[in-house]
Amino acid sequence: MPDAPPLTEAETLARLRLARSRRVGATTFHRLLAEHGSAAAALAALPEIARAAGAEGYAPCPEGVARAELAAGRRAGARLLSFAAPGYPAALADLDDAPPLLWALGDPALAARPMIALVGARNASSLGLRMAQRLAQELGAAGFTVVSGLARGIDAAAHEAALASGTIGVQAGGIDVIYPAENTALSARMAGQGLRLAELPPGTQPQARHFPQRNRIIAGLARATVVIEAAARSGSLLTARNALDYGREVMAVPGHPMDARAAGCNLLLRDGALLVRGAEDVIEALGAVMSAPRPARPMPPAAAKSPPPGPAATDAPARVLAALGPSPTPEDALLRTLGLEAPVLAQVLVLLELEGQVTRHPGGLFSLG
Amino acid sequence: MPDAPPLTEAETLARLRLARSRRVGATTFHRLLAEHGSAAAALAALPEIARAAGAEGYAPCPEGVARAELAAGRRAGARLLSFAAPGYPAALADLDDAPPLLWALGDPALAARPMIALVGARNASSLGLRMAQRLAQELGAAGFTVVSGLARGIDAAAHEAALASGTIGVQAGGIDVIYPAENTALSARMAGQGLRLAELPPGTQPQARHFPQRNRIIAGLARATVVIEAAARSGSLLTARNALDYGREVMAVPGHPMDARAAGCNLLLRDGALLVRGAEDVIEALGAVMSAPRPARPMPPAAAKSPPPGPAATDAPARVLAALGPSPTPEDALLRTLGLEAPVLAQVLVLLELEGQVTRHPGGLFSLG
């Protein structure tokens, strides 16, 4: 991020307060920043905005809370990376829900290299673990930084194998909260040789709802997300969905259909994910991307951030769900009812199928559940 | 084949002699039949045609040899099915190299139902064998006849599991030559409950060169060929190539990349074969085909058989091989050099890759071997 000017200390504090204020998610953060030009201005406007929306007595995050977080982060040895400021991963800059802030422990330069996410099951098979190790080593040797989630199983195997070449672990809780405990030693080495990133404040214990938020950062960092082993309804498939949403490549390692741990991967493959037999397949698929010179696109200033997607795009999944019932409905009928474009509907159906919210029946029929 | 009139005994004998004459392969057989209107007329013209082509002393298959084959077939209890005559499988009628004759033992009506080929490795894994059994049972229950090659491994498992619902075994040698010997009991039950087909004369011991010929019949009978488990360079991939050539569906069961027995299937999947997790996937993919009323296309009379493909189509693989060398050549360059249409070249490259004659490199480059 050599082009972006560093933020003032006041603006950094204001950003932290804005990001930590109730009801201000990542997308809202960017909209407020774009509308008001700075976090300080947005923060000043926030109580009036809340009042206009009928929320009496709304107060933004107090300055003391933000200062305490800054102190806690520094005690953990971490550095705060602000959206569009120096050190912030350029790969995340395009995302409508880019993390406003990231706590970083380790070498932020690892996020400046092309990244591949390797994700998969916690209860992976030995074949799956070996595949994760082999892919991580070979992709590392080819110059890619390996991104994963510091979980048990596939994640840990991938990080371990890529420690020497470069790896980033994205944490669901605070940067100083190691989960699971068995990854304590690995996490310490990641901070020394690799990079750990956490969106939530130091000290945050990871909750179930935090993992999908973490997964979007993994998908957003990586040019491609490779699912190595995953059951039919698993977090790895949500990461794959994020990657699709972000226009990144989704790839999957096949497995035998009688192995339940391959069900998620095989589902992705049926839905068009690239089949990965080894690192060469990943590298070949990204070859065109990698060899093309990266467009010289400087980090956009925060105020020029593209607006969040309009209702047409974001509403589509909800509208499709509303149009479906327990008995199968033809895709054609959905097209007519919803007035969506066919490719949009097809993609939404794939995503909902991935999430297990929709079932695909023979003959182009779909039902809920 | 209710619309096709039965052949006279004399024409049946002439067809057998024509088909068994030296240098008359299936494609030549159909061309001669189309040019001369009947096998008897083609047979009469054959010595003159050979002389004009510089082959002195050419004699067609003697009548005695053909009569001896008819007698041997009857002794084996088999029935001779002639191209475009009653009992001949309608599924084969479109093929440029449709077998001129088939010896049949069992119930020819099984070939009048929609058929699925299940093929795969002789040295299959236990997972592969279970998959073959399960697919055969479920596809049989759904009304499909299961076609395979009566070989060890996947073939035998598929036949066994589909005996009750209906299965066809296509033999590489003569109808009365059981190979491998361990399938003797299965072969006997196939003749009783199922159907066995053989293109070569009774008594023929199967040779290596006969298996690709047999494989084309398997692919030609079936609406879809499902490869259940196959190494990278295996006969099952040649059957898949035949299916592609015939415009039929190619499907494959995925396996873990670290299992060498999955390499062929994963290669097919990368090249666009449909991923099969179970019988539902096959049935769903064929759903549109199956539910559409079959066009009321009567069996074409032999004389109206479409001509064999011209040099443009048949030469393409040889021309591509001639244009390639050991060092990688871009697909673009091949396009310009050969003047083929891009989709044609792409398909030829996939086929040659399947056969192991061509290697695909990153960046759209190809080399021999």
From TrEMBL, chains A, B:
InterPro entries: DprA (IPR003488), DprA_WH (IPR041614), DrpA_SLOG (IPR057666), WH-like_DNA-bd_sf (IPR036388)
Segments of this protein annotated with the region Disordered: 293-315
Compositional bias segments (type: Pro residues): 295-311
SUPFAM superfamilies, per the entry: MCP/YpsA-like
Biological process terms in GO annotation: DNA-mediated transformation
Superkingdom, natural source: Bacteria
DprA winged helix domain ranges (all copies): 305-364
One of the Pfam families matching this protein, by short name: DNA_processg_A
Positions of the Smf/DprA SLOG domain: 81-286
Family: Belongs to the DprA/Smf family.
Protein name as annotated: DNA-protecting protein DprA
UniProt source species: Paenirhodobacter huangdaonensis
Native organism taxonomy: Bacteria, Pseudomonadati, Pseudomonadota, Alphaproteobacteria, Rhodobacterales
